[in-house]
Design goal:
This is Phage holin family protein. Pfam families: Phage_holin_4_2, Phosphodiest. Residues 697-711 have a biased composition (Pro residues). Keywords: Membrane, Transmembrane, Transmembrane helix. α1 (2-33) runs antiparallel to α5, α4 crosses α12 (313-340) and α13 (352-377) packs parallel to α15. The protein contains 24 helices and 22 strands. It has 3 domains: 2-138, no CATH class; 167-441 and 638-678, Alkaline Phosphatase, subunit A; 444-464 and 496-628, no CATH class. It has 741 residues and is an alpha+beta fold. Strands 4-21-10-3-9-7-8 form a 7-stranded mixed beta sheet, with helices on both faces. Strands 12-13-17-14-15-16 form a 6-stranded antiparallel beta sheet. Strands 5-6-22 form a 3-stranded mixed beta sheet, with no helix packed on it. The chain is globular, with a radius of gyration of 29 Å.
């Protein structure tokens, strides 16, 4: 045993010596290449003296990187994550300047801008050399992983090797639909997934709810309830707020409501970790979780996940270099797309190249590193979201070459996590899943020349932009509104005499969630009925339902209950929601569409008018109400069909090969799998106790009380005045955004 320790120590000393020697040679080479970087004084020195100076500089830089860098990164945790990634070069260059000052006799000097370049090259070369040495020595690599895992496990008081039941890692491939995964495997883009399908895993398709987006799906998956989440963004009349799923304050409130509804902290409440998600899932270990971004306590700060990754300067430089390369890749791909004349196409300028690079490089690297750390620490359950594909597919298309390249890189990340599982202190079962897919198609504005908001305003007889007014759709909507107004003149005279003519009120609020539109009238309390909408805006519903870019509407009727309105030849068909059976206007949207519409109709915050775009079953196209050529958020096509890729050692998601329907059912499946791994019966993780003693992992309500708050009735506006319009929660400003719907 003593001989083994001496051999290990000797190997470590050899690796340090080799890295130091390579770094010294790199420093000498850079001094000869760069004009503003020198390792000897102006009056000249011998080659030997210059080499000694380079060795001093390389050694000092290595020590500073190991000792000072983690402290510097921790000090910058309050800096936004994107800015922190860009500061990496500056911080590394500063350490090099300090290292040169520590050289005896002051033999080294560099201009600040040159120091940034030298430091980046030095870190990259040292990292590559160290990695190469570790790869060549498999035994040393395994021993190092084992030591790390043992130390972390002892600190946590975890079980010894072989004593723990299997753990579970859930990797969410954001936006990757079932059909996209199958095609990627067939095309050889994802060899790791292909190998699993051949040997150890099963693939299952599941159906989303009507709101097919990360906010609704991940809330249901992690917390067991996505009740009252009608879209990615929606207006709540009782509070006057616009809720947006990827804003910290909204995410915290949605999580609070879900926990109150289920009485359970979440899927990950027993020794779990949540990485890169919108919600915590009840986990103790959090990194890059949006719903706790606003917290100020040090232990749960969302950005703490960056410290674990960027505390290694080699990681920081490698990710920063990859970030810059990804920005260049996006610019090049965008230019080539324009040259080829690709259709459909959407704008990819402005800050988008940097947003894409953050999602595909920085967030991926940090999340994967956090998952690796969780596995080496032996955590019971880990849920992590990889958002890269979703972001690229929105702007390049879900079946584009750009998106295919991202799938290749995701597969490599999955392969790395699978390799780490071989060195973890417990067996891990890795489950891949997605929260939704994406449906292709030109945006609504690109196809018809005006936005959904323009169409609504035209149908209400309100002013629209000159560009939108010149389109055929805008002209037809204005004509319909004009004719409806003339046809209502006789009624208006009687209404004026009785004092019943409605006031104009504030403009309608039109919000988009992919190809799902939500229209609300803020001056009408509760959910406005069809009759009231027709009384105020006689042409609006006919204009919307008759438009070729719209599939159907959901609106409440005071006489007939909620109804679906859709185009039917030259007219409009009206079907009661209670009697929907998947035929008629919903027939092309697939099985389960009627149930999804009925469920959303029951939500307290369903919009006055819910609008779903057209869907062409032959091509799979939809029209997003946002500037996207790959979209999700409503019904229609691949967006509604994500996947579950689970080990054969776990039970089938649904007996006899059925498909889970909705995110809440997927939550039940994942919870059952966790119980199977632990050898325990299926049941709640951590039920919440008395409301006076809330679970500390539940984000507090507005007043710090996790109990349901009675929503105040909308205040009546004084006569002649309109009630206040919507306000966005100001607490969400400055927070990290996912995450791209």
């Amino acid at each position: 045993m003593g001989e083994g320790r001496w051999r290990t120590a000797g190997g470590a000393l050899l690796r340090v010596t080799v890295v130091w020697a390579v770094s010294t040679l790199t420093l000498l080479a850079l001094a000869g290449i760069l004009p503003d970087f020198q390792l000897r004084s102006d009056d000249g020195e011998s080659i030997t003296r210059t080499a000694v100076t380079a060795a001093w500089g390389a050694g000092a830089f290595g020590l500073l990187s190991a000792l000072v860098w983690p402290l510097v990164v921790r000090a910058f945790l309050l800096v936004p994550a994107l800015v922190l990634g860009l500061l990496v070069f500056f911080l590394n260059g500063s350490l090099l300047l300090l290292a040169l000052r520590l050289i005896p006799d002051g033999g080294g000097a560099a201009a600040p801008e040159t120091a940034v370049v030298v430091a980046a090259v030095m870190s990259a070369v040292a990292s590559a050399t160290s990695t190469a040495l570790a790869v060549r020595d498999d035994n040393a690599y395994r021993r190092r992983l084992s030591r790390v895992a043992t130390r972390r496990r002892r600190r946590r008081g975890g079980p010894a090797d072989g004593d723990a039941p299997p753990g579970t890692v859930f990797l969410q491939l954001d936006g990757v639909g079932h059909a996209v995964l199958v095609q990627a495997v067939k095309d050889g883009l994802m060899p790791t997934v292909a190998r699993w399908l051949d040997t150890s895993h099963r693939l299952t398709r599941w159906r989303t709810d009507w709101s097919s987006q990360t906010g609704a799906s991940q809330l249901g998956i992690l917390h067991g309830s996505n009740h009252d989440v009608p879209g990615f963004r929606w207006y709540e009349k009782d509070t006057g707020r616009i809720m947006v799923s990827n804003r910290p304050a909204s995410a915290a409130e949605l999580q609070r409501r879900a926990v109150l509804r289920t009485g359970d902290a979440g899927l990950l409440s027993l020794d779990g970790a949540s990485r890169g998600n919108l919600f915590t899932g009840g986990a103790d270990q959090l990194a890059l979780v949006l719903s706790v971004t606003a917290r100020r306590d040090r232990a749960n700060r969302s950005r703490a996940g960056y410290f674990a990754y960027f505390s290694d300067p080699a990681n920081a430089v490698r990710t920063a270099v990859s970030f810059v390369a990804e920005v260049g890749r996006e610019i090049g791909q965008s230019v080539r797309s324009r040259i080829r004349g690709d259709r459909p196409r959407t704008g990819r300028g402005g800050l988008y190249p940097f947003i894409r690079a953050f999602a595909t490089v920085v967030e991926r690297d940090v999340v994967v590193a956090a998952v690796v750390g969780d596995m080496l620490a032996g955590r019971t359950a880990v849920y992590a979201d990889l958002v890269a594909y979703d972001e690229v597919a929105h702007h390049s298309g879900p079946h584009s070459r750009d998106a295919a390249k991202v799938l290749e890189r995701i597969d490599r990340a999955v392969a790395l996590i699978a390799k780490v599982a071989d060195h973890a202190p417990r067996t891990y079962r890795i489950v891949l899943l997605s929260d939704h897919g994406q449906s292709p198609g030109e945006s609504f504005e690109g196809a018809y020349g005006l936005t959904l908001k323009d169409l609504v305003r035209a149908g209400c007889g309100l002013p629209v932009s000159r560009r939108a007014g010149r389109t055929r759709s805008g002209a037809e909507a204005r004509d319909a509104a004009r004719h409806a107004l003339f046809g209502a003149l006789h009624r208006s005279t009687a209404e004026d005499a009785a004092g019943e003519r409605p006031a104009a009120g504030p403009d309608p609020i039109v919000l988009a969630s992919g190809n799902l539109g939500l229209i609300s009238f803020p001056d009408l309390p509760g959910r406005a009925g069809r009759e009231e909408i027709d009384r105020r805006h006689p042409a609006l519903l006919h204009t919307l339902a008759g438009h070729p870019g719209i599939g159907f509407l959901l609106v409440r009727s005071e006489r007939h209950g909620s109804v679906v309105l859709a185009r039917d030849g030259a007219g409009t068909v009206e079907l009661p929601v209670a009697g929907l059976d998947g035929s008629g206007p919903l027939a092309g949207f697939g099985p389960g569409a009627a149930d999804a519409v009925r469920r959303t109709d029951s939500f307290p915050h369903a919009a006055d008018i819910m609008v779903n775009s057209m869907y062409d079953p032959a091509t799979g196209r939809v029209h997003a109400f946002e500037a996207q050529i790959g979209s999700h958020g409503g019904l229609g096509g691949e967006q509604s069909h994500p996947f579950l890729l689970s080990p054969l050692a776990l039970s089938e998601p649904v007996p006899d090969g059925g498909e889970p329907a909705g995110a809440e059912q997927v939550h039940a499946v994942l919870r059952r799998w966790l119980d199977e791994c632990r050898g325990e019966p299926f049941g709640p993780q951590v039920p919440l106790g008395h409301a006076e003693d809330p679970d500390p992992r539940v984000p507090p309500g507005p007043a710090g009380d996790p109990r349901p708050q009675e929503s105040p009735a909308p205040a009546e506006a004084p006569r002649g005045q309109s009630p206040p319009g919507p306000r966005e929660d100001r607490r969400s400003r400055g927070g990290r955004t996912k995450r791209f719907p």
